[in-house]
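Structure in, sequence out. Go:
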């Protein structure tokens, strides 16, 4: 509703009221026309917008306000990044290289005495023996996973190969790397005889607070014996003693020891085991005896292992 209409309506009402009221003084027609004209002019001059302005659009109160449209600015061209030079004390050190993960250690033992050869197969020379009770770290294996490369328990070579038929592993043997086998010997291998011998206990002896056992060894092989190692373990006390010697020596109580340089084929001799600082009789004892055809535990070797209670 315009201001003019809002003004004329009450004015018309006033005229009707004036006409209906007795004694009211009425305007002349000329005066009345003048007042109306002035009112119209006043209303137009107050409500009309300036000539240069665009009349605003009237939005009904019940019309929802429209959502403004987002304007995406154009990205600026990245300026060149300045080079930052740190003071020597602020320079971040380069990280140290990470150590390469090492494969876990795998160890092996056997349930039966096994030859240790110069290569993975029976065509290779025997360079040692891997006995029950021994344990070694596995360094490699052959491509078929039948032979295992270990440090040689004896001094003939640094390393040797054992057959895995009687092997028991500690760790995942499949993680052991495959190693290239050495060349097969071109000449026909000569059969190397194994050392066969028999052992018997020969009694317990004390002297000056020391205690030991004597054994009788009989050579049943075709080679002479030149060196020996005797290891005794008191399983009841978890105490182990060992003795290694070139030749064969035995002692009875505090008497002077008797010695022999070699043990010939089919011959027998007595040897004394390692000495303990206490009387071990009545305890479970494990005995391992190794003999070799050459001095210093070299040449062809054989071994026996047994348990008993003296």
């Amino acid at each position: 509703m315009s201001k003019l209409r809002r003004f004329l309506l009450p004015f018309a009402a006033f005229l009707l009221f004036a006409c209906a009221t007795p004694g009211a003084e009425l305007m002349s027609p000329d005066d009345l026309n003048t007042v109306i004209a002035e009112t119209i002019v006043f209303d137009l001059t107050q409500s009309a917008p300036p000539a240069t302005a665009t009349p605003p659009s009237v939005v009904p109160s019940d019309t929802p306000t429209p959502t403004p449209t987002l304007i995406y600015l154009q990205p600026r061209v990245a300026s060149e990044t300045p080079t930052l030079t740190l003071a020597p004390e602020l320079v971040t050190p380069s990280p140290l290289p990470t150590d390469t993960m090492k494969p876990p250690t795998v160890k092996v033992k056997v349930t039966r005495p096994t030859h240790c050869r110069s290569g993975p197969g029976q065509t290779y020379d025997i360079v040692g023996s891997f006995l029950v009770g021994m344990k070694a770290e596995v360094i490699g294996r052959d491509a078929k996973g039948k032979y295992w490369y270990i440090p040689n328990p004896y001094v003939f070579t640094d390393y040797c190969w054992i057959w895995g038929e009687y092997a028991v592993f500690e760790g995942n043997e499949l993680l052991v790397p495959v190693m290239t086998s050495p060349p097969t010997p071109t000449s026909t291998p000569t059969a190397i005889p194994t050392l066969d011998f028999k052992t018997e206990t020969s009694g317990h002896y004390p002297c000056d607070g020391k205690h030991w056992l004597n054994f009788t060894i009989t050579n049943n092989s075709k080679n002479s014996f030149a060196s020996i190692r005797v290891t005794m373990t008191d399983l009841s006390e978890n105490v182990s003693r060992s003795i290694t010697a070139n030749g064969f020596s035995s002692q009875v109580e505090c008497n002077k020891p008797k010695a022999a340089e070699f043990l010939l084929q089919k011959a027998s001799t007595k040897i004394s085991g390692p000495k303990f600082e206490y009387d071990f009789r009545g305890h479970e004892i494990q005995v391992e005896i190794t003999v070799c055809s050459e001095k210093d535990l070299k040449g062809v070797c054989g071994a026996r292992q047994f348990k008993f209670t003296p």
